[in-house]
Amino acid sequence: MKRIITLLFLGIFAFSTAQLPAATPAHGFGLLDAEELQFTYQKLISEFYKKVDAQAVLDGAHDNLIAYLQHEGVADPKVPSLHAVDDSSQNVRELDREVSNAVTAYHSARFTPRDLTYATIAGMLGSVKDRYTVFLTPKEFAALNEGLDGTTFSGTGIVIQSDETTKFITVSNVVPDGPADKAGIQQDDVLYTVDGKTTKGLTIDQASSLLRGKQGTTVTLQVQRDGALLANPISIVRAPIHQLSVYSKMLPNKIGYVALTVFGRDTGAELTTALDRLQTQGARAFVLDLRENGGGYLQAAVQVSSKFIPSGPIVSVESRQSQIDTIEADNDAIPPAPLVVLVNGHTASASEITSGAIQDSGVGTIMGTKTFGKGVVQNVWALPDGSAVKITTARYLTPRNRDINTVGIQPDVVTPENPKPRYGTLGRDDQLQKAVQFLQNKIAQLSSPAPGSQ
């Protein structure tokens, strides 16, 4: 199953030590543990998009703490039940006391006081029965950030694929202004050899290991272009490459193709660069591919949508207090052109904001299969030890006030997916083929003189 990425706002842990319980936690249960318990409790009670029952929160914390102790080998943990009162500070003190007592009673080499704090926090968040409201360990939070913002590695800036007919490694894309781009590598080039080694029969991982290497080192490529080997090999000096979230290329008949893998920190800027390049090459229509895109940052969704929607609302966000904030387009759209947005069942969250906005505004045609249906927004608060709490804080509505949560977006043109598609490759991607045919007809209609014109 594909990962559905949370539609995110990023929060900052802010805590006043004056709010801490008077008693100083002991026996390994430290000040930071107490802070994180109180912070999580207060954020869940005040920010979750539905009313929260304090007793349910305490029960969730208690039950998950017991479950964790049992999982770690404590046969019959004696942890008293907690009873909520109207005073939130008292409830937090009860949480502190429960974890502190558990640390004292069940000291073990198999787990740390922080592990018990994590189990209690996870139980609190799980009490609201919302799949997107969860605790993230430092490792999980780092993975979320890496998935949204990409990684940096030393390489050439070539995106590769294997040609199933010839078995050679080919260039599916080139990172703009990267080492390969500056050296003259082009989309659809065949990498015949890498440092004298043929690429025929290599896996993607094997070829990637040849192209990557220490920054400042040189790799030499023998390149085949348009069926013929180039007269001279191309040498590329490896440099830091930031993983892209936007990939683009020109399809036949000047149809620009742009695929987004995630709505990350740099996606808006990357899309601007890609569209500028395609427009310079004479693009007359566009395919925006959001298939398998599980979402990301809300602001990135607004930035992406604004490249195609010149003005007006993009999305409305409704909080628990029924306060509705409508976010308008950034007024930096490209000139109008025929547009198809490709979607499928793994198009979710921020991808659905963009799909819904484009559909409601009428600037493009949604094509593919029904989207996932994630219409809620999360805030993520990073905690001081590198962990984080992620809480659903609002739902969102499309410009026409549609709530797509659990419902999804129905395409304007339903197009089934072929078995084992290679997304973005004509001849291996039926949905893309239909999109191109649709746009070719649109281009022909725009090029035809109006009836009665001279």
Gyration radius over CA: 26 Å
Proportion of residues in β-strands: 15-25%
**Overall pLDDT metric:** 91
Q: In CATH's first tier, which class of the largest domain applies?
A: Alpha Beta
In CATH, the architecture of the largest domain is Alpha-Beta Complex
- Count of helical segments? 11
Q: Name the CATH homologous superfamily of the largest domain.
A: 2-enoyl-CoA Hydratase, Chain A, domain 1
CATH topology of the largest domain: 2-enoyl-CoA Hydratase, Chain A, domain 1
Principal-axes shape call: globular
Q: How many domains is the backbone divided into?
A: 3
For the record, give the distance between the C-alpha atoms at the N and C termini, rounded to a whole number: 57 Å
Largest sheet: 7 strands, antiparallel
Q: Uncertain regions: pLDDT < 50 for 5+ in a row?
A: 14-27
Residue share in helices?
Answer: 25-40%
What is the SS-derived class? Answer: alpha+beta
What's the count of strands? 21
Note down, in words, how this protein is organized.
With about 450 residues, the chain is of the alpha+beta class. It folds into three domains: about 10-135, no CATH class; about 155-240, Roll (Pdz3 Domain), CATH 2.30.42.10; about 245-445, 2-enoyl-CoA Hydratase, Chain A, domain 1 (Alpha-Beta Complex). The chain contains eleven helices and 21 strands. The chain is globular, with a radius of gyration of 26 Å.
